[in-house]
Design goal:
single chain, Immunoglobulin-like, 4 helices
């Protein structure tokens, strides 16, 4: 039989352990809640008030903050989620690249107008260098990038063809076009068609609209190319800039990151 004093001692120890655990859990919840509110307030101010860094995209003309669509000839292209792109652009967008390929966030999504309704089009995207240098985070300022030397030789440029290609103009214009499945990799021997990039280099996507009946005949079709200054990003193997990480937390908690 268990001694009564031992039983009472055991109950007291269990109660004490439970109280400590409860206190720890409450403290953890309190900390997480306050950290969440602080992060949201900080990142909201950060994304709203910080001026855009013109060095983020030296190879492209800067557009006004209200511009999210461009027109060439009769064709107009609009960047979807432009405000989200601009928010990340303010702090310096980073995109993770991995050996097996990683999807972009924010991902590329566009809408089109002005196409000929019954003509066939191929829509594709490639990602090209924004400049000819590579970067590193500044030692004294962990949220600022600085030039670290000349860029490495770039791998052959690959294109990602939208899976609906080819399709008639009326199809392309009826809804937005997502390039969610496009993946980025740092594997120069990649055999899966992913876009090959170098870490610590800056890039931006170019969107091509080609009037053609097949992806194999795009060389002979008339085409228009579009790009958006706010889509410039730095390729990284792990997120570097603390401000970018806070922007990701902000997007996650408000349902933008899925």
């Amino acid at each position: 039989p268990i001694d009564q004093s031992e039983e009472k001692q055991t109950e007291a120890e269990i109660f004490a352990a439970g109280a400590i655990s409860c206190e720890t859990s409450v403290g953890l919840i309190y900390f997480c809640t306050n950290y969440f509110h602080f992060s949201c307030q900080f990142i909201s101010a950060l994304l709203t008030d910080s001026p855009a860094d013109p060095r983020l995209n030296p190879g492209m003309p800067l557009s006004s903050s209200a511009a999210n669509s461009y027109q060439q000839g009769c064709i107009r292209m609009t960047l979807e989620d432009s405000e989200l792109w601009k928010s990340f652009h303010t702090v310096g967008t980073e995109m993770i690249i991995t050996k097996h390929g990683r999807r972009m966030f924010p991902h590329c999504s566009i809408s089109l107008s002005g196409l000929q309704p019954f003509a066939n089009y191929v829509v594709m995207v490639d990602i090209v260098p924004a400049d000819n240098v590579k970067y590193k985070l500044a030692v004294r300022h962990s949220s600022q990038w600085e030039v670290a030397g000349k860029s490495e030789p770039q791998p052959p440029c690959r294109t990602y063809i939208h899976p609906d290609s080819p399709a008639v103009g009326s199809h392309w214009m009826k809804q937005s076009l997502s390039f969610l499945k496009m993946k980025l990799t740092n594997n120069t021997l990649d055999q899966h068609g992913h876009i090959i990039l170098h870490s610590m280099h800056r890039y931006y996507p170019r969107f091509h609209v080609i009037q053609a009946d097949s992806p194999h005949t795009v060389c002979w079709g008339s085409f228009q190319t579009f790009s958006f200054p706010e889509t410039v990003f730095t390729a990284v193997t792990a997120y570097q800039n603390p401000k970018h990480c806070l922007a990701l937390h902000y997007s996650f908690y408000f349902g933008l990151l899925t």
